[in-house]
Amino acid sequence: MAFRATILTLYPEMFPGFLGQSLSGKALLRGDWSLETVQIRDFATDRHRTVDDTPAGGGAGMVLKPDVLAQAIDQASPDGDARPRLLMSPRGRPLTQQRVRALAAGEGAVIVCGRFEGVDQRVIDARGLEEVSIGDYILSGGEPAAMILLDAIVRILPGVMGNVLSGVHESFEGGLLEHPHYTRPQVWEGREIPAVLTSGHHGEIEKWRLAEARRLTEERRPDLLGPQPETK
User: Fold this and answer.
1) In the predicted model, is pLDDT for residue 202 greater than 60?
2) Lowest mean pLDDT among 137-146, 210-219, 221-230
3) 175 vs 177: CA distance, rounded Å
4) Is 56 helix (H, G, I), strand (E, B) or coil?
5) Mean pLDDT rounded to a whole number for the chain
6) How much of the chain is helix, strand and coil, in % rounded to 5?
7) What is the pLDDT of residue 232?
8) How far apart are CA 165 and CA 151, in angstroms?
9) How would you classify the pairing of strands 118-119 and 63-64?
10) How far, in Å, CA of 156 to CA of 66, rounded?
């Protein structure tokens, strides 16, 4: 069964965006995955199609109304739909490659794109929305984050990448950042490709790549290596 993505948004015209290009776009045309958008505003009940209101207790911004959003979710994901319901949110759990792989192994996802100051907590709780963050920064809305999430998922769906090893030997897959890459010419602006990479000794090449991956991880993302033993 193809991976099914349903996006709940106030701006459906933003999709598929870059997901309609390159590998993900070709996979979409082949039917390896599908993309549906749902306009949240269609579920507003007043003549102004109001989807937000002022925050209870005061404060800046506006909040997405629970009744309107719940109606949209219920139509997009009725009883029996096993797909996880995700809310793109800067306060969510950070997205990891492990979570991406788990999502890619499922039937799809229902993704809510927040706007304004946030989403009423009651609909998050009542509809079991899993909050997902793509980084410690704020966007104007959840749409770009949803596209990034889907790009990460779609690229590892079966048949999307020509070389299946491309999705294995890369950053985060083995708990390390990816090693440096080189290609011809052999010498460029006085800089040479490391000799080991043109030696033909595959065992030594793999050792070099692992050592470089560990070096880069220690320098840039030591948090990926976990707690390190104290030195005396």
Assistant:
1) yes
2) 221-230
3) 7
4) coil
5) 93
6) 40, 20, 45
7) 57
8) 18
9) parallel
10) 34
